Amino acid sequence: QKLVQIMEAQAQATTHWSTHQLAMSSAPAPTLNEELLGRCLSWLTLTSLPGCGCASRHWTREVRNGFARQLSWKHANYSCQALQLGQADTGKESSGSQDAKVQIRRTSGHIKALGGGRFVILAVSHIHGGSVKTFIVDGNTGSKDEQCAVEQSSPRHRRCAMLCGSDVGGVVGHSDDGAIVFFPAVNCVAEPTAGKVFEVPSVYQNVLHCGEQVFLLHRCHMWDADDVMADVLHLEAGKWLEVNIGQLLQRLRELVGNDERELSAVSATRDHFIIHITTSTGAKVAGAVRLPNAASTGILCAERPPPPPQERRWTRTGLDRSKVEVSFARRWEPGNPIATMSQPHEMPAGDCLLLYAGWESEGLLVCLLDASTGQVESQVLRWPRHPEIVRNFLDHEELAHLSFVPQGKVACGCGFPLHDLGPPPVVLWDFETGLVLSECGYLASPLRTMPPPLSSSPSSAAQGRHNDPDVQRAPGALRFQVGSRVECRTNRGWQPGQVVAIHYSEPGWPPGETAPYQIRCADGSLLFAPQDVPQLIRRHVVEGMYASSYKVQAAACADTKQLLLALFHESAPASKLYLLRRLPLESSKQH
Question: 371, 272 in Cβ contact below 8 A?
Fold first, then answer.
């Protein structure tokens, strides 16, 4: 019991064990049964396990088992199975429907791992009427559970004019009369929530999924206000309450100080609402508030739905009573890894926020921000060795999708799909070291991981990437030069062009203000890129090589080591799904 208590404290402090600590603070080894000892050792990292094997023979045997559990993702072979969704699931509407078409934004679906080899999928079912279908896939059999399939529409027969899929939470709809409709995927205990559809008025500044709750920020000038109000809606219980996050904004203003706010973003984890800011001096400021559970103290929406914020009147007592405590507020000075990412991608990972930017010469910088403490774990994910995967990453200078598996601290990254909509490349990293565990390239079923290299010398593709001028550059230097062929993201999608000027400025701009590039598009029009980030400008690739209109999502089942890959069209109800199942050791040897 004492060993368990000490290990729990060490795990929370994110410190590593030493042999001396284990020997001095634990009970005698024979008093620990194998199940308890194995569970304790499973909390340790690969760098900590070797020292633990010195305690006794009993511990040595359990450390071997611990290594096997930690390395279960490494050098595994996977079979790849394409899943057929059926005509209704892919959005093939009947020819007799006369309803107006639904507009789709971002993606046409959402996937989530449930555990035990099961996955939940939400997909736009019909382009007419705006319905969403939820169904379960059993990764052990590779089949859909038709009995669990549920088709959902907007409450009170409202028609959704627009449906937005996302990497987080589920699908969000916007109705004709201005309501926001939520189609959540799972609840806090990883159970599918098919049939649980809620709506709120479309009068909020930001709408964010926070686990099984939704955070609804009221419209306001929050950087100038003392009180910043928001609603928290519990999707499972159907309850809501008001919160005041003014204390968080006050703390952040103090940390920003005399700097200017260049970029600011809001995000959410399972239990927290987060704001992070990049200042004019290159510092990063971030803070979070823990959201109260509306299921226990909230008001039932069925009895009294949340009124529009502009119709509410608050007293000073009510504003003070609704204040929520700040979990953390911190500032990282220039040079800190998290401060080097000015416009990172964001992905919730439990109650942490995963931040990552584009590829650099050493690899991909990733920061894991703990929303409850403000502690940051930084790691550089190494380049893979497969030359085709390297080329995919180089062509886009970023990942199509990155997720984090807390059980085992594994990062799962996906490349961009090719025009044939086959399975995109997948790479698994050990987050503790940044080393590649497995690589899955463009291969037919079974999808094979790349074998470990025969020597320590890098492959030709690895050597080539360090000589690439777009990857090897000084910090702060531009990625492209005049004459570089690029692609720019516009309101018409990605458009090819050529850089005609760098550090571009227009008459009337403030002195010293410039844009990184001016680009001449293929149709002769001129535009400028406001920032030098892969989300806005990237290198030109062979036309038609990639399916740029499809977005990639990945869901990893930690206990069965299965992966579900989804390719969702960003503006049409079309999708492709691939199930990657880990082959038994005997099958791996045969292959």
Answer: yes
Distances (CA, A) of 233 to 81, 112, 302, 363: 38, 21, 12, 39
What single DSSP character describes residue 236?
T
d(CA 45, CA 409): 9
CA–CA separation, 456 vs 445, rounded Å?
A: 29
Assigned token pair, 497: 């062009």
Structure tokens at 431: 């987050």
pTM, rounded to two decimals: 0.76
As a whole number of angstroms, the distance between CA 214 and CA 205 comes to 13
- What are the tokens at 585? 């050791």
H or E, element range at 494: strand 493-504
Q: What is the pLDDT along the chain (591 residues), one digit of tens a residue?
A: 556 555 555 545 433 444 444 444 444 444 456 666 766 766 666 666 666 766 666 677 777 766 666 666 665 677 888 887 654 444 444 333 445 567 777 778 888 888 888 898 888 876 656 678 888 888 888 777 765 666 766 665 566 777 777 777 778 877 777 777 777 776 544 565 555 677 777 778 888 888 888 899 988 888 888 889 999 988 888 889 999 999 999 999 999 999 999 888 999 999 999 999 999 899 999 999 999 999 888 888 877 878 877 778 777 777 777 889 999 999 999 999 999 987 889 999 989 999 998 888 889 999 999 999 999 999 999 999 888 898 889 888 889 999 998 877 899 999 998 888 888 999 999 888 888 888 887 644 334 343 333 333 333 334 444 444 444 455 567 888 898 888 888 877 778 899 999 999 998 888 888 899 999 988 888 999 988 887 788 888 776 778 878 899 999 888 888 899 999 888 888 888 999 887 765 544 444
Amino acid present at 286: A
Angstrom distances, CA of residue 581 to CA of 50, 146, 435, 452:
30, 21, 22, 20
327 in Cβ contact with 210 (< 8 Å)? no
Decide: 496 and 521 in contact? Cβ < 8 Å: yes
Q: Give dist(CA 196, CA 503) in Å, integer.
A: 51
Per-residue tokens: 395: 């062509």
Q: Of 551, 421, 548, 534, give the one whose Cα is nearest residue 104.
A: 551
3-state SS, residue 558: coil
Cα separation of 388 and 395, whole Å?
Answer: 11
In the block, tokens 């052990």 appear at 140
Q: Is 253 helix (H, G, I), strand (E, B) or coil?
A: helix
Q: In what order do the strands lie in the sheet with 143-152?
A: 109-115, 118-126, 131-138, 143-152
The Cα 406–Cα 43 span in angstroms is 11
Angle of CA points 107, 148, 169, to nearest 5°:
35
Query: DSSP label at 382?
Result: P
Residue with tokens 């000589």: 467
Q: What is the DSSP string of 149-214?
A: EEEE--GGGPPEEEEEE-SSSEEEEEETTSEEEEEE-B-TTS-B-TT--EEEES-EEEEEEETTEE
